[in-house]
Amino acid sequence: MNLVIEVQDLRKVINGREILKGVSFYVKEGEIFTIIGGSGSGKTSITRCLVGLWKPTAGIVKIFGEDINSLNPQRLDQLRRKIGYVFQGAALFDSLRVWENVVFFYLERGKMKEEELRRIALEKLRLVGLGEEVMDLFPSELSGGMRKRVGIARAIATEPKIIIYDEPTSGLDPITSRLIDRLILDLREKTGATAVVVSHDLVSAFSISDRLMLLKEGEVVATGSREDFLRSTDPFVVEFIQSGMLREIAETPSS
After folding, report:
1. Looking at domain 1-75+196-250, which CATH architecture does it have?
2. What is the mean pLDDT of residues 41-64?
3. Which range among 64-73, 127-136, 226-235, 242-251 shows the weakest confidence by mean pLDDT?
């Protein structure tokens, strides 16, 4: 079993409040691992520790076998290049055109010609189901689902080994959400990248994940496959599943 992420007894304290309380998990190469839980459960806090934006109060975070808390800034930057991050709101630059957003990593370094940058941008856009017609548009001219796809294209522009999706279906209608789910699965097949997904969308999590981890107030309640969760008798797991399914039914348009 080739592990790309190993987290052991991760703890984070901010302003005297313990945000993460001894979280431990691993992620295998090529799998889709989804972290679920309600608002404030610590999901995004974990991803901030994974990419080194937050230094843990205690615990170990290993990426590709390296403890990121012991790395110097140069080595940490090199490691981050292997990680693509899809932000919750896409976080596109309003003043840049779509192609410029996609290749921003290279554009910022100014070492490549525009022709080559546009070629890379179009290649990544096609991987997420978009084409040349959106290249010169601004983010304000795109739908929410299209902005999300552009954000994913930007995340894969550097051909990362790990892609972190922070609430990829947040703010999208159920139909567009399922399109994003299929895109995440498709990208795993096309790129081979490992995916860590943060989500409160239970239908999405059950649709795409090899394994899931449920958090409650900074602690791990359960980890396992979809079948493990469906068989669980833990009261919190049962309640979370039932409330998630009811929410999906309520939000799905009637025919």
Report:
1. 3-Layer(aba) Sandwich (3.40)
2. 92
3. 242-251
DSSP state for residue 2 in the 8-state scheme: -
Alpha-carbon 128 to chain mean position: 15
* pLDDT of res. 198: 94
Q: For residue 247, is pLDDT > 70?
A: no
Angle between helices 114-127 and 174-191 (to 10 degrees): 110
Q: Long-range contacts for 180-186 (Cβ within 8 Å, ≥24 apart)?
A: 180/145, 180/148, 180/149, 180/204, 181/207, 181/208, 183/128, 183/129, 183/149, 183/152, 184/32, 184/208, 185/32
52 alpha-carbon distance from chain centroid: 15
Check if the beta carbon of residue 146 is closer than 8 Å to that of residue 64: no
Break the chain into its structural domains and give their ranges: 1-75+196-250
Query: H or E stretch including 218?
Result: none
Q: Cα–chain-centroid distance for residue 106?
A: 21
As a whole number of Å, the CA-based R_g of the chain is: 19
pTM: 0.89
Contact 208, 181 (CB under 8 A): yes
